[in-house]
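Researcher: Last one for today. Full complex below.
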Amino acid sequence: MRQDRIGFLFLTPALIAVVIFYLLPVVMTAVFAFTNMSTATGIRGGGYLVTEQTLRDLSGHGLTGATLSQLADAGYEVDTEGLAALAATFGDRLAGHIEAELGGESFATSRELERALRDLRAPELRITRDRKQAASLFQRSVLNIRHDTADALRDELTGAGIPGGDHDMIIEAAYTGWSWTMRNFELLLSLPSTARYALNTLIYVALTLVLFNVGLGLLLAIATFYLPKPSAAVFRAIWFMPRILPPVLYVLMWKWLMWDNGFLASALAPFGVERINWMLHSEYHAWVAIILINGVVGASFGMIIFASAIKAIPQTLLMAAEVDGATRWQQVRYVILPQMRWPILFVTAYQTLSLLASFEYILLSTGGGPGSATEVWAMAAFRTALNNYGGNLQYGMGATFALVLVIIGTVLSLLYLRFFNFQALLAKPRIER
Amino acid sequence: MQKYRGHHVRHWPLIAVLVALSAPLVVMYVYQIIDTVTTTPAGSIIPDGLTLHHWRFLTGPLSDGGPTIWSLAGNTLVFASCTALVVTSVSLTAAYALSRLNMPGRGFFLGGLIVLHAFPTVTLIVAVFLILQYMGLYDTLTGVILVKVAFELPFGIWIMKGFYDSVPWEIEMAGVTDGADRFTVWRLLVLPQVQPGLAALLIFSFLSGWSEFILPLVLAPANAPQVLATYLAGIIADDRFADFSLFKAVSIFYALPVLVIYLIFQKKLMNIYGGGTKG
Amino acid sequence: MTKTLLAATALCSVLAGAATAQTYDIRVWSGGSSAADSYRWEAIEMAADILEREAAIRGEEISINVEYMWEFGGWAEFKQAVTLAAEAGDAPEIVVTSHLDIAPWSQAGYIVPVEDYLDLDAWPLSDVYPNLMDIAAYGGVQWGVPQDAESRPFFFWREHMRAIGYTDEEIDALPEAVLNGEYTLQNVLEDATRAVEMGLVEEGMGFSPRVSNGPDFAQFYQSFGGEFYDAETGKLVLDRAAMTEFYQFFVDAVEAGVTSRTHIGTDWNEWYADVANGNAAMWHGGTWHYGRYIREGNEDFFGTIAFTLIPSGGGETGRANTITHPLVYLVTDQGDDELQGIAAQLVEIATEPRINTLHAIKSAHLAVAESQSIVPLYAQDPWADAATSVLLPHANSQPNHPDYGVYSEAMWSGLESAWTGVQTAEQAVAELEAELVTVLGDQLIVR
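Model: Here's the assembly. Have a good evening.
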């Protein structure tokens, strides 16, 4: 088989997955970002529904009073047309009975007409269902009837005698689905909360990265390098565990440590320290908590990368330093650290992107609190679009948040690719066939 | 290198620093275990009695009409194993193509892979939901597995590519010179060389699947496909369950496979980034 | 909307004539529920049994399978699950949820009006309190049926009040004093401060509010004269002054040391244990917490705790109030008209006084219908009786408006910012206003 054919064959499964679950969602998200999609509008488009609220909105937008009252007051009419339909379904006896008792009357709501029908005590209308069906035959109002298409509503309006000139305005106001808009981007620029999310994200990424993923990771890697093997293994195990423990569980451990009645509060109480919720006592506590929680997980990544990089340092270098009488600190400073330049850059680049998109640990620990003090951009996207107390899911706005992250991530990774000399990654295959 | 360690230097300052840094974690681990078999008076840190009460969930459902821990564990196991198998096999072939095969667009794909890593996958989940729904896979375990696999792929391929990169060309050259085609060479000669990477990726993606929380939460909310992570998060958020000790016992049950895997495979796990750091 | 019934009725009569066993699968998803709320779905199971028996007597054979689910983690997860399932065309047939979901879900077409299937003038629906029925209606359409009622009163620990200097008579007269605006939130602050200063309760425990977002906080906005909805225009209202005073009240409570700055996010279990046992001087909570107090070891609720409406904030506009936030049964636009009809009938039967009372008493909620007060189980329950007469007549609800979710979410995060000291009350209200004006546009009236 030819090499490039095997190549594509080998790549195909991955490509399909990437197209379906990355590229397509990104394109769709980009589309959503230009809509006002929400719970109320639904995702897949809406129907046409004239409600009391539609009428109120229309009255503010120049629909004539005559048409408005025509729409609002149509209600139910016991007219010949309705009676004919009734006769066809329920028979002439009932139609005659109703005509005699209620002929020519009108009712504002179905409920009132149903009451009147009930009072007739007609044997044909004993069952609720039949009464409702009979009442529906006299309906002349277009209110609160959901139509799937604009044309269906237009027919209905025509039938109700609404002037054709008003149709478009009514239909537009009656549409329940989403529409195209640039508002999400305007909101993004003008809302005070978005600036805070951006700042929070910056603080979160920078501090976690510098202090833990790189700083602590380096410290752990170097320290375990100098320790005898068994103790090094113990410390590596301790620090590696958070990375593989399920987040739900890992955060539970932190909560147990930091909550009002948790370990920290209980252990410090005998020393006269006030019992507080160490995770949420103030925004500073919350910040320390989320950076610790994320940082400890991140440190193991740095630790592993740096440890293997230190292992790769030629022994002769270290030996030479030792012979020259260098202290351990000097060895670290002048031999090990200079060799760590690329690994540090790699960890920085890789983890910036991971952190930018991550929020799981924050969601499970502080939940973005207190008062959105620790709410980061990715989490705002998730909560806006999918997860909030009121169940008010704003897909359009959430997509706008997500889109911004996609753009930042893509630009950053392209920059990194340039910076890390991408061609070096692409060692040319040495077999041509 | 071993001989430098311990020369002219005392370990205790270093160990002291590490112990101080690790203390909070160790305290959490230790109490995580102790609390599940003891009772502790409120506001204290010292246990005052032994009990197996916190482990009651092993014999019956946690809540009336709720699922048993075993069915949840079963779901989670299926989810994690399928994720691991598919991620590993897809990465295995794709990474080889990117690492070793001469094909048009190789640089583009490789660059794309790195860009994919930067995608905030979870924030795209509304779109993913729609796609699953059109495929008829919303609210099914299969659907969540597919999405999870896709989200793990950039990482998997990247790791595997690193391992392929470090396989000496001579091995393949020899195979090709003997007249075998590239597929055979890959299968018989190269694959054995990347065994460590394969094992590490398998374990890592299993662990990742075992831990996954948000995807099943959003994409499979109904009873049947529930996994341990979503169920645990649910009962922790629920104010009916009073005790941390119960959560901890459930957590230990949940973490047990992770611990066992770590103990058995720790060398391989530590090697996970072994191939991926060059450049 | 009633016109679709034509086809269904024809279908139904054909089916009835055929007299073959017809199977209906009904799923019930219940939000914000715990095991104590089991009658939210068990009532539907009972209703299914009754409906099957009634059909059998008529000579029809129907079989109704009820499946239920209630463990969703929280409201956020529940609503997300229902919404996405409805988008996927796979929603449960019956949903038990907040009445606030009616506006958005009816616009989205996820639910169908129960009035298309049920006779609202016939028993048992005719017996449901009209104001509760109104809460389950939107835009003049009866979309749902109230499942339970509750309210969110203010509580006092009697012993601490006595220690502060109130006589038993004065404590018993508190509901009256609160109602008349004689005992206000300013008195709350003063008394709570005294309770802390006298060492009756720990610092931060003078006044212990709900620990997470909820309709309870909307009450304090109303205490200062705030209104959420303008009935004339159908628009939401932001009363700047009331909102600022409402935020400021919590800021003052923190500054006086009677409420903890970090109270939000406290573990619910801790909170229950505290308020049930006199670790807090005053607090506010739900009527359904009553059952929990007993489980926390407080055997003598009436002897230890006094309850009132949420006191007025004082001033001319202030008013004592309480919000009822009934859950409602909604029927989703799932399956055909016939299935929806069955679902609606199940909801109707579940609303019958005896069945609903099982829920009311088991979960310490309040009745939805008049005649529940003569159901022995209800009449014998001292709490249900007291809470119904003192609180429900004065209860109002939050508005059914598609954008109220945005409003309430933003109001909460503003309160959180002010409470935790991230912003001053004025700053928080300014940000809230900016946010709401931008997001809601002409759907909002700022006063």
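DSSP finds eleven helices and two strands in chain B. Chain B touches chain A through 108 residues (CB under 8 Å).
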